[in-house]
Amino acid sequence: MLSLIVWWPLVVALVLVAAPALSGAASRWVFVAATTVELALILGMWFVYETPAAGTLAFEEQVEWIPGVNSSYHLGIDGLSLPLLAMTAVVFLACAVYSTASTRRTPEPEVAHATRERVATTGTATTGTATPGTATPGIAATGGRGDVRGRGAGGRRARVNSALFLFMQTTCMGVFAAQDLIVFFVFFDLSIVGMYFVIAGWGHGDNRRSALKFFLYTFLGSLALLLGFIGLYIAADPHTFDMVDLAAQAPLQGQGVTGGLVLAAILVGLAVKTPTVPFHTWLPPAHTDAPATGSAVLAGVMLKLGTYGFVRVAMPMLPDAWQAWAWVIITVGIVSVIYGALVALAQTDLKRMIAYTSINHMGYVVLGLGAAGLIGGSTSAVRETAVTGAVYQMVSHGLITAALFLLAGVFRDRAGTYDLHAYGGLAGPAPRLSMLFVLAAFASLGLPGFTGFIAEFQIFTGSIAVAPVTALAVIGILLTAGLFLRAYQLIFTGPAQGKTSGFADLRPAELWSAGGLMVLAVVFGIIPRPLLDVIEPAAQTIVDLVGR
């Protein structure tokens, strides 16, 4: 069952690539069907899930793989991974649905401009020039270039695009299900490859430069991560890459210097992926130039690969080093929260603004996990609360920020720009977009009734109880409120101006994709128990392991 969940998207991706006669529209619906099946498989697993005993897994598969280094194909699910698997399936399904609405009705602004220039100089339009109501060869489905409903170049690009997203879904599922460090690393590293091609091939602006920066930063981070994994392997007795055995052993316990160096390597590798300050500089350009669905997956799912590594690898396998570095980790979390919100407040580009809020929200996760390392003078209960909130925040941020990026994609699709000052009074012609945007904005700043409130309340409750100075991070919530209210005011209120004229409201597929994510953010904001019942026992186990 676990292998089916991990590999099913890749199998469908290979079928798409091998089906040259499949049209672009059909490819997108195959994408929708594949992600729907994936979600159904995970929900089926959730319904039969029973909380495992501490140090064990609820579902598990293990096959010998590289016996020379004691590495196996080992997959497993517990209360840390199951919510993230479900969140991943939901985000990819939302992106699949969104892609069905993304064939352009009008030419890309820069393409249209070039066409006008050719017409002005030659008196004729070249072959492939779009007219209103037609698709232009070379314009992408998801906010980039080259996506047309047909069996030509656009059809091929649509197939490849859908296949790439399914490939990335397999890599993300593999990371969350991996119980062997080599298996974890392989999936972790391959996720970089998929996103590179999505940004470079379907992005806009300076997309190739942004894709290269993303790849180099995250690849260097993964090399540091690999060094940390090798350090754990060497220290283990017997040598092993098995994550369950390493968590039980804590092989570097009591080896302050060596444990600190190994933790530093792992933290750097994971912090780049998260990203936290000061390893965040690749994120804003990658988001700004990525297609909408690419940004949704990058923020909604792939950033969680880093924070999941903290709670799955660093904390249980290096408990005393985590304790020793707790204040450093907390400081990084506080700085990321405040810095991300401050820089987001200064942005005039909607997508770039949302990107910086991701740094802010990942800072809350790091803050909560860092607080779990402050053993002296605190009870395990409050530290469990902080860890539970951090995991809940991963799920919450995945749903809400993915919705925000999908909504941001609508602005480029309609008007070719994310500039906040290019719009005004948009609530009139686009009431559905206005409603969903304000809902997602309120959810992002953590108002009661949304998942963000449940997550941040637990993070602050647990963190402030063990370290009152963490209350400084509350400033981030105030700044987030200010930046989203400012964005809403500029875009949706006041008289109609700029690009607002002729702006079309959300299409059904856009409404269902972003709206579905927000429905879940509300449901689990009001009824958090189904998620908490799964997360809390796993958080208790992590706290117990860190406190050894």
Strand neighbour order, sheet with most strands: 1-2
What's the total helix number? 20
- Based on secondary structure, the structural category is mainly alpha
Question: Radius of gyration in whole Å, from Cα?
Answer: 23 Å
Number of β-strand runs = 2
- Our measurement of the CA-to-CA distance between the termini, rounded to an integer number of angstroms, reads 34 Å
User: What is the beta-strand fraction?
Assistant: under 5%
Helix content: 55-70%
Tell the overall outline. globular
Gist?
This protein has 548 residues and is mainly alpha-helical. It has helices at residues 2-17, 24-47, 81-99, 109-122, 153-177, 181-202, 207-235, 243-249, 256-273, 283-289, 292-317, 319-324, 326-345, 350-371, 380-415, 431-444, 451-466, 474-492, 508-526, 529-546, and strands spanning 59-66, 71-77.
Fold blueprint:
Elements: H1 2-17, H2 24-47, E1 59-66, E2 71-77, H3 81-99, H4 109-122, H5 153-177, H6 181-202, H7 207-235, H8 243-249, H9 256-273, H10 283-289, H11 292-317, H12 319-324, H13 326-345, H14 350-371, H15 380-415, H16 431-444, H17 451-466, H18 474-492, H19 508-526, H20 529-546
Antiparallel strand pairs: 1-2
Helix pairs in contact: 1-2, 1-5, 2-3, 2-5, 3-5, 3-11, 3-15, 3-19, 5-6, 5-11, 6-7, 6-11, 7-9, 7-10, 8-11, 9-11, 10-14, 11-14, 11-15, 11-20, 13-14, 13-18, 14-15, 14-17, 14-18, 15-16, 15-17, 15-19, 15-20, 16-18, 16-19, 17-19
